[in-house]
Amino acid sequence: MLLKKLIFDNYKTYYGLQEVDLYIPESIREEGKNIILLGGLNGAGKTTILKAILYVLFGKRGISEEEHKRLFSNIVNNTFFDEGGRQSSVTLIVETDSGEEWKLKVKWYFDKYKRLTHEERNLIVSKPGSRVNRHAKIDNIETYNKFIDKIIPYHAAPFFIFDGEEIKDIILRQNSHEMKQAIHKITGMDAYNQLITDLQSLQKNIEKKLASSSSNSKIKDYDEQLNELTKTMKRLEQKRSKISAEHEKLKNLLLEEKERRNKKVTQNSKSRETFVKKQSKIETQMDLAKKELSTFFKENAISIILSEKLTKLKNQLKLEDEVKRKRIIENSSLTPYRNFMNQLLSEKIDPPLTDTQLKQIKELGKEIWLKENNINNTSTTDIQEIHDLSGKDHNFLTNYIISDKSKMAKLINYLESLENEYQNIENEIRNAPESVNIDKENERIDSLTQMIGECNLRLRSVNKKLNEAKSNKANITNKLTRLSGQEVDLEELQNKYSLTKKTILAMEQYVEEVTTMKAQYIQEEFSYMLNKLFRKQDEFGKIEFDIDSYTIRLYNDKLQEISIQDRSAGEMQMISSSLIWALTKASDLALPIVVDTPLGRLDSHHRNRLINHYYKELSEQVIILSTDTEITEEYVKLMEDHSYKQYMLDYDEKKKYTVIRDGYFDFVTE
Question: Which phi-psi region, left, alpha or beta, contains residue 155 (left: φ > 0; alpha: ψ -120 to 50)?
Answer without folding.
Answer: alpha
